[in-house]
Write a structure and sequence with these properties.
heterodimer; A: alpha+beta; 6-stranded mixed beta sheet; B: mainly alpha
């Protein structure tokens, strides 16, 4: 009996070993003889919801749009200088592209642009897209068409754009998208709203979208007839991961070539992994603590937040460098104005005599002088002349871990100067309900915009209350300056106006800019080279940066993501399953024999 | 006759529960504080004129009185018309649901079968040889994993078996963009499913193990077991023919219920292993406030539990006729 059992086991082990080695040998000999395409795999957290650029809502979708479509103008790689992309030159007064009165702009399109289906890209495509955007107020692009009086295609390669006001800053339709009118023009408005732009995506940029499995991945292929040349990266696969941790693990394992990294902790994990390159990129966004200044009967704001002196005092009471240190682990800068320092030309840094630092005594003095004193000795100040204690509600979004981390610090510092803050964390939806219902005192949130400050500055104007304004701040001087900078044709003058606006915001403090958080990117440095930072020296490495995509190339003889993706070779699986089947069979046989033995 | 009365009663109960679920599902999404029109417009960052908002509201049927909306909702549900998903523009909720359903059914279904088979087997063996090394071992093992949070176990397995050892892919349903077919595709899917299935299986073996073991111990103490043994029946037969059969009863309802939860997905495990299933879809729907999708997800998940409950009741009555009398 024992002999039978032993023989069976030996047989099993031998069977497993043979299958395994055969499988491994097969896997090794299966190395491809044909030229494999160069594939770049980018890990993303967050699915692609629509390939329709008019519906894009997040940075991943914006990156996709950048790979699929050329833009009329672009911001240069090294320094954000304005460059032509679809145009032959940037319109200026000197080259006749802008009329002397600043009202008429002429765009000359290149004549070698083609759609991926072979049709030429024409001025009519631009006109159709612009008309659609204006008519339907497409939020991502409408900003490019301010003051538009008319847009005419005078021939296949020329657009004449007339405006009601001269402007330099905002109204550049140049950063707007151009869609293929021979495809999109055939659809009804309703169909465009539901249009996924896949399959049969027709693009004007270096890549086309060829494959898309929602929840799993989408794949782009380089066009071989692209006018700026075919990139070395033949294919880009965006692979969807469901959590910030998993995508970092996938990079370390080598399943993907690149990803953004969500938190400082993860950045420090991935930074030291072998073969991985990692970088801290400049802050493009800011975190702010807004005050509810809504002049609306339904507002439930505490009256004290309406007083600019109180808001300044709060600013004095907050230790921003400590927040950067403790909340961001040093990956960021203390905040001053909502135009981030990355946009050097427009950012205004308060001079020393105006700058508000961390000084609780100064905060206390300001509050005392304005009459906010603690009359009942409970540690919390009351409104001047007694009355309501300074008890405020601070609301945070569950999706914003940095804000949640910062809240207890702020709570503590404000308590030290006699302001009692209670915090509540809620979903984005709930937060927006409170926000637009003016039912709050303080909110911490974060956002950011592109290099031109116009849109950001507009969000502090009176008319934006209920739309883009975080605070419902209203200041007629500011509103006037805003209109002035929009139509200021001299860039230096405009800069002075924009500086002054930031100074007003800094003094009036409708919101306190807490910090500018860095972002993180990581990539397989053992496989890829040729990245171009956008802008130099600390801008985006790859994610959102088409310049890098167009310039990067594989390190010679490096392994690729596809090699390390498969995990166990199929043969091991087959061997494993065979082994199991045989093992179960053997156990059954042995048992049956034993039973027979007993029965006998 | 009693049988049919019992079945009819159970069906009626299920029907009433279904109506209740539908009603709760309808009102749940109407008492939420968020105004759908505002949500829809804010998400896409559109500034709508009041007229456009009114038009959208009437398109969604939100301007009609509640009872009429309710009837419309019931009619739509019967036709499986849940409207269009908002996060996936231009696609119906049902098509989105179906796409994410199969991976989850495969994942959670496989894991459920494995946890049941292994858990019950260990429970039977453990109860039979109580206090022996196998029992003590499986008790420790299953309780250890049962007490670990899913997502934690998942992360550890991911880091060890995927990142460090490189045996399995770190996530997904299959290798993206591969043109595998036939057996190699099956193996590829299995490769991706291995760690999530392992996590779920390890995590929930304990549940079946404990239930099976304790009910077997109860049965083993019964007089008829002693009688059977006294008659000289072989030990194996005592266990499988006489003890296990009766001890299975509590496990049957547990099993039926487990299959009901297959459609609820395994949110944390799907999240860690980036598995494109219903758990992920639910999270997305919540994140992006896709109420129509969420409503359908809730409905299908409750329906699955309802149906499996019904099945449990019916199977139970068939296996153990005593419950019909009760």
């Amino acid at each position: 009996m024992r002999g039978v059992r032993r023989r069976l086991w030996i047989g099993l082990v031998a069977c497993f070993a043979v299958t395994l080695s055969a499988g491994l040998a097969a896997a090794q000999s299966a190395s491809p003889s044909v030229e494999e395409p160069v594939t770049l795999t980018i890990g993303v957290t967050g699915d692609l919801n629509s390939a329709n650029p008019l519906q894009q809502i997040d940075t991943t979708e914006a990156f996709l749009t950048g790979l699929l479509y050329d833009f009329v103008l672009r911001l240069g790689q090294a320094d954000y200088a304005v460059e032509p992309e679809m145009l032959t030159e940037v319109p200026t007064v000197e080259n006749g592209g802008i009329s002397e009165d600043g009202l008429t702009w002429t765009f000359h399109f290149r004549d070698d642009l083609t759609w991926s289906d072979g049709e030429p890209v024409t001025a009519q495509d631009f006109k159709w897209t612009a008309d659609y955007i204006i008519e339907n107020k497409v939020s991502s692009y409408i900003d490019g068409y301010r003051f538009t009086e008319s847009i005419e295609a005078t021939d296949d390669h020329t657009i004449v754009w007339t405006t009601t006001r001269p402007s330099l800053a905002p109204g550049w339709p140049g950063y707007s998208i151009v869609l293929p009118s021979h495809i999109w023009g055939e659809l009804s408005d309703k169909e465009i709203k539901d249009f996924r732009n896949y399959p049969d995506t027709v693009s004007s940029g270096p890549y086309v979208l060829v494959d898309w499995e929602p929840g799993e991945f989408w794949r782009l292929e380089a066009r071989d007839d692209y006018w700026q040349g075919t990139p070395e990266v033949d294919e880009i696969v965006f692979r969807v991961y469901n959590s910030d941790e998993s995508v970092v693990q996938a990079l370390i394992k080598g399943e993907i070539d690149s990803t953004t990294v969500a938190t400082p902790n993860l950045f420090e994990t991935v930074r030291d992994a072998p073969g991985v390159g990692a970088a801290v990129t400049s802050a493009e966004a800011f975190h702010q603590m807004s005050f509810n200044l809504a002049d609306d009967p339904s507002s439930t704001a505490h009256p004290a937040v309406l007083d600019p002196v109180v808001r300044q005092a709060v600013s004095w009471a907050i230790d921003k460098p400590t927040l950067v240190d403790r909340v961001l682990r040093g990956y960021g800068l203390p905040g001053t104005t909502p135009i981030v320092p990355l946009y050097e030309r427009w950012h205004w840094e308060p001079p020393d005599d105006v700058a508000i630092g961390f000084d609780p005594a100064e905060a206390g003095r300001l509050l005392d002088d304005a009459g906010y004193v603690d009359t009942d000795d409970d540690g919390v100040r009351e409104m001047p002349g007694g009355g309501d204690p300074l008890e405020w509600r601070l609301f945070l979004a569950t999706t914003d871990p940095a804000a949640i981390k910062a809240a207890p610090f702020i709570q503590g510092w404000l308590r030290d100067v006699g302001i009692d803050v209670s915090t509540r964390t809620m979903t984005d939806a709930k937060l927006f309900d409170q926000w637009y219902g003016f039912d709050w005192d303080l909110i911490i949130y974060s956002w950011g915009t592109g290099p031109d400050p116009d849109f950001l500055l507009s969000s502090f104007t009176t008319g934006q209350c209920g739309f883009w304004s975080d605070t419902c701040y209203s200041n007629s001087e500011y509103d006037g300056l805003y209109r002035e900078q929009q139509t200021e044709l001299d860039e230096t003058e405009r800069q002075a106006t924009v500086d002054r606006m930031q100074e007003i915001l800094y003094e009036d403090t409708p919101e306190i800019v807490l910090w500018y958080p860095n972002s993180f990117e990581a990539w397989r440095a053992d496989r890829w080279e040729g990245f171009l930072r956008w802008p130099e020296p600390d801008g985006l490495v790859l994610f959102g940066n088409t310049y890098s995509v167009m310039n990067m190339r594989p390190v010679v003889d490096a392994p690729t993501a596809a090699d390390s993706d498969s995990g166990l070779p199929a043969a091991v699986w087959i061997g494993g399953i065979l082994f199991l089947v045989v093992a179960v069979g053997a156990v059954v046989i042995v048992r049956r024999r034993r039973d027979e033995h007993y029965a006998a | 006759m009693g049988e049919w009365r019992y079945v009819a009663r159970k069906l009626l109960q299920a029907g009433v529960t279904l109506l209740f679920i539908l009603t709760v599902n309808f009102f749940l999404f109407r008492v939420m504080p968020s105004d759908p029109v505002r949500l829809l417009t804010r998400q896409r960052g559109v500034q709508l004129t009041p007229e456009a908002q009114a038009a959208l509201s009437s398109e969604l049927g939100l301007d009609r009185p509640i009872p009429s909306q309710y009837l419309q909702y019931l009619a739509d549900t019967v036709r499986l018309d849940f409207g269009n998903s908002f996060i996936y523009p231009g696609q119906s909720v049902v098509s989105v649901f179906l796409r994410y359903m199969w991976p989850t059914v495969l994942l959670v279904g496989t894991a459920t079968v494995l946890m049941i088979v292994i858990g019950l087997y260990l429970g039977i063996r453990g109860g039979w040889k109580r206090g022996r090394p196998l029992d003590v071992g499986s008790m420790g093992f299953s309780l250890l994993f049962y007490s670990m949070p899913d997502f934690w176990l998942a992360m550890i397995l991911l880091i060890v078996f995927s990142t460090a050892l490189g045996w399995f892919p770190s996530g997904g349903f299959e290798t993206p963009d591969s043109d595998l077919t036939g057996l190699s595709r099956v193996l590829d899917v299995a490769n991706h499913m291995f760690l999530p299935v392992l996590t779920l299986t390890l995590g929930y073996i304990g549940e079946y193990y404990l239930v099976m073991r304790s009910s077997l111990l109860d049965v083993l103490g019964e007089d008829y077991i002693t009688t059977v043994r006294a008659k000289g029946v072989r030990e194996d037969r005592v266990l499988w023919r006489h003890a296990v059969r009766n001890a299975m009863l509590p496990s049957i309802s547990l099993i039926a219920l487990s299959f009901g939860f297959v459609l609820a997905g395994a949110i944390t495990v799907e999240l860690v292993f980036s598995y494109p299933g219903l758990g992920l879809l639910a999270i997305q729907a919540i994140d992006y406030q896709d109420f129509l999708l969420l409503q359908a997800l809730f409905l299908f998940a409750s329906l699955a539990v309802l149906v499996s409950n019904l099945v449990a009741d019916l199977v139970y009555s068939w296996v153990d006729p005593r419950v019909r009398e009760a």
